[in-house]
Amino acid sequence: MFETCKSQPPPVESDTWQAACFSTSMASTMLSLAPASASALLDRRDSSKVILPKVKIGGTAGRSLSVKKNENVLHNAQCSGRITMTAAVNVSRFEGVTMAPPDPILGVSEAFKADTNDVKLNLGVGAYRTEELQPYVLNVVRKAEKLMLEKGENKEYLPIEGLAAFNKVTAELMFGADNPAIQEERVATVQSLSGTGSLRLAAAFIQRYFPDAKVLISSPSWGNHKNIFNDARVPWSDYRYFNPRTVGLDFEGMIADIKAAPDGCFVLLHGCAHNPTGIDPTSEEWEKIADVIQEKNHIPFFDVAYQGFASGSLDTDAASVRYFVSRGMEIFVAQSYSKNLGLYAERIGALNVVCSTSDAALRVKSQLKRLARPMYSNPPVHGARIVSNVVGDPVLFDEWKQEMELMAGRIKNVRKKLFDSLSAQDKTGKDWSFILSQIGMFSFTGLNKAQSDNMTNKWHVYMTKDGRISLAGLSLAKCEYLADAIIDSYHNIS
Ligand SMILES: Cc1ncc(COP(=O)(O)O)c(C=O)c1O
């Protein structure tokens, strides 16, 4: 698969590049972004202003402009705003920049903060809270930080691929230290900016080395997946995953869609604790998924943001990934320590690419570094040191596992209490047992947008509009209140 991945960049065909979009950093040209109001446009008769010839660029992929190799252009990029080569007077050159909508997940927290009602509950963002609904810093993290302080380590740049000690322990945690792929040095591991940054780096790699490949994304999926591939200009399409009738996995639909896709797609899979549904394939289903992926010459791409958080066991939650590796498949794995070590703000994670040979792994790693360098240069050190101190130290590692079991256990208790409350308080006899069969931080309630709006507007329960609630943000004490809100929204709003 990685035979085309050489240490050099893809060749430039000629010394002119086709660009569909200009960089706005052509500083001296005073570009203004359309649509600017007519009065804002430069009066072409005023000789004191810079006037540039009007050039048709941007807008659609079909229109293009030839520019010299050394010019600052966005290579092979599409842009949605139309740029007129006209300078602006007494008006911001950002008139054409429209207001972006709030992020569907992080925007929920903003709305929650603005709500002054005491009963409010934030079940939007997937971040662990204590029973008192307070953020939690793990004891092992505090201990690791104390050790780091005592050592008085410096703040020098890390290499592009990150902290060596981190890369070693993170790959071992994911695949198992005795995994032949690790022993044979077939895994290219690069520290990256948590799960999101690792996905983004992989997307850039796909865009560069598999420009014709499409990524298949479960429907539904974590909302940022599509943004990531859109921004990396990687085409994607959905595969069926959720069956609203059973509030379970649409396994037949999933297999059919993966089969129907053109050969050689990347199939994005949630390694455990599928977000937002909380529904994971069984081990038999994983086997069939691997069969069809191999049959179609697809490339599995695992997103593992919840290792240890689904079952409470790091090994159990890595079983899907390890199974695919054991079948000799080349796979991508994006890893995150936001949830399982509570290192949300440290932006610590990794991208692992398991290759068939150690030589391919070396080449892939060299290209991942090459992509990372102009994106963020090198990753931050603090989180990497925390992880390597915790995972690399047998005592702290054991303590971490215990703490993780406690966190996962609290979520399981809340899940059970919510189910009990719904069953007891809903007099219609509706079966809420699907909540118990879901796994991880989230529950996909099956509430539609109008019902989710009612949860927020009437009950001050903040959640994403796809009906997902984060049980990590719920306490036992609030389960009955939440059950009332769900029952009201489900039965009284259509
Ligand atoms: C499925 C999935 N992937 C990736 C991430 C990325 O998280 P982070 O960038 O904080 O590691 C999340 C976070 O919610 C997620 O749910």
From TrEMBL:
Alphabetized Pfam families for the sequence: Aminotran_1_2
Output the Gene3D superfamilies linked to this UniProt entry: Aspartate Aminotransferase, domain 1, Type I PLP-dependent aspartate aminotransferase-like (Major domain)
Is Metal-binding among the key words of this record? no
User: Which processes are annotated in GO (biological process)?
Assistant: amino acid metabolic process
Q: Per the entry, which co-factors are needed?
A: pyridoxal 5'-phosphate
Residues in Aminotransferase class I/classII large domain copies = 120-486
Q: What class of enzyme is it?
A: transferase
Looking up InterPro entries in the UniProt record yields: Aminotransferase_I/II_large, Asp_trans, NHTrfase_class1_PyrdxlP-BS, PyrdxlP-dep_Trfase, PyrdxlP-dep_Trfase_major, PyrdxlP-dep_Trfase_small
Q: Could you tell me the EC number(s) of this protein?
A: 2.6.1.1
Q: Which UniProt keywords apply?
A: Aminotransferase, Pyridoxal phosphate, Transferase
Domain of life according to the entry: Eukaryota
How is this protein organized at the quaternary level?
Homodimer.
Entry protein name: Aspartate aminotransferase
What organism does this protein naturally occur in? Aristolochia fimbriata (White veined hardy Dutchman's pipe vine)
Taxonomy of origin reads: Eukaryota, Viridiplantae, Streptophyta, Embryophyta, Tracheophyta
